[in-house]
Amino acid sequence: MQFSLGMLKDERQHWILDKLSADKKVSLVALSQELDVSYDSIRRDVIELEERGLLKKVHGGAISNSYLPMRVRQAMGIPNSEISIIAQKAQRLFHNGQIVMMDGGTTNLYIAEQLPRTLELTIITNSPPLAISLANHPSVEVILLGGSFHKRYQITMGSETAAQLRHFKADLYFMGVVGIHPTAGLTIRHYEESQLKRQMMAVSGKTVVCTTFEKINNVEAYQVCRFEDIDTLLYSTSTILPETKGWPRHKVEFI
Q1: DSSP SS3 for 16
Q2: Residues 79-122: pLDDT tens digits?
Q3: Do domains 9-66 and 81-254 have the same CATH topology?
Q4: Which of 177, 176, 86 is nearest to 125 (CA)?
Q5: Is domain 9-66 in CATH 1.10.10.10, yes or no?
Q6: Per-residue pLDDT, 104
Q7: Are 111 and 94 in contact (CB under 8 A)?
Q8: What does 191-239 look like in DSSP terms, one character per residue?
Q9: Which of 73, 89, 109, 169 is the most exposed place for a label (fewest CB within 10 A)?
Q10: For 49-90, what is each residue's pLDDT tens digit?
């Protein structure tokens, strides 16, 4: 079923929320077809609704705004093949005895859920869902950073979080971002979180960024760092490589 042109943005977003309430998940492509508007318009609608705390954007669509472990997302049929590929690649970077910084986001959460049971690590995180996912891991020590809890992003941040970071030195930092661009750099939507990510980079030996296709060439409001400031880019599909032709790849390891 297609809708006639001229639907106002508020009406369109209300319809998206109704659809999400009924179906538990929505696809950006399907919404674009059903509402007879461009994919980019639907994508912007979903981003706005996420920023208002009304849903959670995932690759290719959206789900209700609540913490869902990957096993639940799989049961719901939400696409996760790209995240699975990234998680498999990420395992190569872990070694016994490391101290690893991981912030919030669905990709980092899934990477944590997939850590081998024999791996001995210390994970420092400002993500309560990520910390909870490691509660039953027999050989991973978890340090959860305190501070003000941001309900929408499900992370801690603020002056208390920043103060605690000064006491740590990590080997690796898995940093979550929303946009990756050769000149605009790595960007996110929240200013205070961008400052916290910079500090996490400063106390870590190497910074790893994981990306799905939709993040490439996307630019958000607040820069965390330049692209060449990171050490490793874990990508999910080879279709990303043509999109990054001409980027300063000699300074960043692509895996």
Answers
A1: helix
A2: 467 788 898 999 999 999 999 999 998 889 989 999 999 999 99
A3: no
A4: 176
A5: yes
A6: 92
A7: no
A8: HHHHHHHHHHHHTEEEEEEEE-GGGBT---SEEEE-GGG-SEEEES-TT
A9: 169
A10: 877 767 778 778 888 654 455 554 454 444 467 788 898 999
